[in-house]
Amino acid sequence: MANAPKMCFDRILPRDLARPARLVRGYRPGRDRAISLIGKQWVNGSTISISFLDGTQEQKEMVRSHAPEWTEYANLHFQFTENPVAQIRVTFDASDGAWSYVGTDNLDIPLHAATLNLGWQDEGVILHEFGHMIGLSHEHQNPGGGMQWNEARVIADLQGPPNYWTEAQIRHNVLDKYSADQLHGTEFDPESIMLYAFPADWTTNGFGTEENEELSEMDKEFVRAATMYPRTAGPADDDIVELRVSAATSASIGQAGEVDEFKFEVTSRGAHVIQTTGTTDVFMTLFGPNSKTVKLAENDDSGAGRNALIRADLTPGTYYVQVRHYSPIGMGDYSIAIQR
Ligand SMILES: [Zn+2]
């Protein structure tokens, strides 16, 4: 088919391939809109550095002018820099399609490699790929989407030009849905920037979509919601609970999908143990020093029972800790403490 749509290749890390997406039946329409993968979001208020590894002045300018639209709604900051080893490294390789790693997965990519490619450029594809970068997933893989794919047709079209994907790539990028326990958000949004255009003959119920070029109202609402990047009245740091070394702090995952954020100061270098206690199955990520975006460690169950425990030799500075429930529907109380 000559006019097969160009599709985005949602890059994921091998550890996620080990956990195949499952089709979820019997979903309940929920409150949330767009979808994001649990455990890949940036610390709220993060400044994310972005560089270009190639590209013309015109190509770079287009990214600089459109990508930051996300930060009008999400409490994140994009800092474009000449330093090539920025956290996000953009290329414009026309032979490699359009793709990005998702959220904090970007921090695990070798520093010489690109993290986001724009094989073609318009406002829609820039917003779409930067949507992945801040942690969003494909809306057509929303388990609440109810897509009834004509699989043979989708596979035949995407195996040809301009995508030339294998069947495994097509299943990963289009046909497989995420399971509800991998996601924030449930209700399908046909206007989401994270939905790609596809023809009606790709589905058995005649459902096709137009190309979305702008952030939908639901996209905006989703990224500024409490579970993603809410903007607080004061500076973002005011919202982060300060922990004292050698003291325990009580906390709670009060609603499904909530991510609690903490910070603490290290005044002299030494081995530190950060751990949770209680009966809630939490997952913990440590960032720093003096950075909300440099990920040092993450842990699920190294503590007592289902608690998280991170042991690290820390130099002086400010450190940030994210704690979430292991399950996106899980809630409960816990305590967090730092010993040295
Ligand atoms: Zn995509």
Description:
The structure is a single chain. The protein has 340 residues and is α/β, with parallel strands linked by helices. It folds into 2 domains: 8-223, Collagenase (Catalytic Domain) (3-Layer(aba) Sandwich); 242-339, Jelly Rolls. It contains 6 helices and 17 strands. The strands form 4 sheets. A 6-stranded mixed sheet has the order 1-6-7-5-3-4. Strands 9-11-16-13-14 form a 5-stranded mixed sheet, with no helix packed on it. It has a 4-stranded antiparallel sheet with strand order 10-17-12-15, with no helix packed on it. Helix 2 (57-66) links the parallel strand 3 and strand 4. The N and C termini lie far apart (63 Å). Bound molecules: zinc ion.
Topology:
Layout: E1 8-11, H1 14-17, E2 36-37, E3 47-52, H2 57-66, E4 77-80, E5 88-91, E6 98-101, E7 116-118, H3 123-133, H4 151-159, H5 167-175, E8 183-184, H6 217-223, E9 241-242, E10 248-253, E11 259-266, E12 270-277, E13 282-287, E14 295-299, E15 309-314, E16 317-325, E17 332-339
Helix pairs in contact: 4-5
Bound molecules: zinc ion (ZN).
Class derived from helix and strand content: alpha/beta
CATH architecture of the largest domain: 3-Layer(aba) Sandwich
The sequence of SSEs as H and E is: EHEEHEEEEHHHEHEEEEEEEEE
Q: Sketch the major β-sheet.
A: 6 strands, mixed
Distance between the termini: 63 Å
**What sort of overall outline do the alpha carbons produce when their principal axes are compared?**
globular
Query: Whole-number radius of gyration?
Result: 20 Å
Q: Provide a count of the helices.
A: 6
